[in-house]
Specification:
79% of the residues lie in helices and 0% in strands. The protein has helices spanning 4-24, 28-51, 57-81, 86-108, 118-136, 142-168. Helix 3 (57-81) runs antiparallel to helix 4. The mean pLDDT is 91.
Length: 175
């Protein structure tokens, strides 16, 4: 039972190529469903891990890796399909890459990381909802798409800035 969250995180990683393939073959409704499932399993694995104390060292690496890989893949696919909105996707990608590099550095320095904060969870939830809607409704009016991407990007960047003091707390642990 303790490995259920890890299995869900691994499932999210396996859903990435399915999402990419479905988008490549213009099966946007199926791709939206895959992305929705990915978002639900993300919320579920975190809930189960915390609720039942099923947190494992593997899960502490697998869950954020699944998040980052999914978000990067979704941003790349949608940036290619929706070139008009490229700047939003570039900002989202940069945020994820910077967070990934920062986390990898801390892990390499053997710093014990805490779990995601509420603002990171909010940003991830908004990402999944917005991207799933954008994929599900491919002919969404431009202003609505821009509003969803703007809100998602603003929330993601705000979360990134709010993580700066969190990451700076670890400076003392780095030798």
């Amino acid at each position: 039972m303790k490995n259920i969250p890890n299995i869900l995180s691994f499932l999210r990683i396996l859903l990435i190529p399915a999402f990419v393939w479905l988008m490549h073959t213009d099966q946007t409704m199926a791709a939206a469903i895959v992305l929705g499932i990915s978002g639900i399993t993300d919320m579920l694995d975190g809930f189960l891990a915390r609720r039942f104390d099923w947190v494992t060292p593997l899960g502490k690496l697998l869950d954020p890796a699944a998040d980052k890989l999914t978000q990067v893949a979704v941003c790349i696919v949608l940036a290619v399909r929706l070139r008009t909105y490229g700047p939003f996707f570039i900002l989202l990608l940069l945020k994820e890459v910077i967070m990934l590099i920062g986390s990898a550095y801390l892990i390499k320095k053997q710093v014990k990381l805490e779990g995601a904060k509420w603002f990171g969870k909010l940003g991830t939830a908004l990402f999944y909802v917005s991207m799933t809607l954008i994929v599900f409704v491919p002919d969404m009016p431009g202003p609505v798409t821009a509003a969803l991407l703007g809100a998602t990007t603003a929330c993601a960047l705000l979360a990134a800035f709010m993580y700066i003091p969190e990451f700076s707390k670890y400076k003392e642990e780095i030798h």
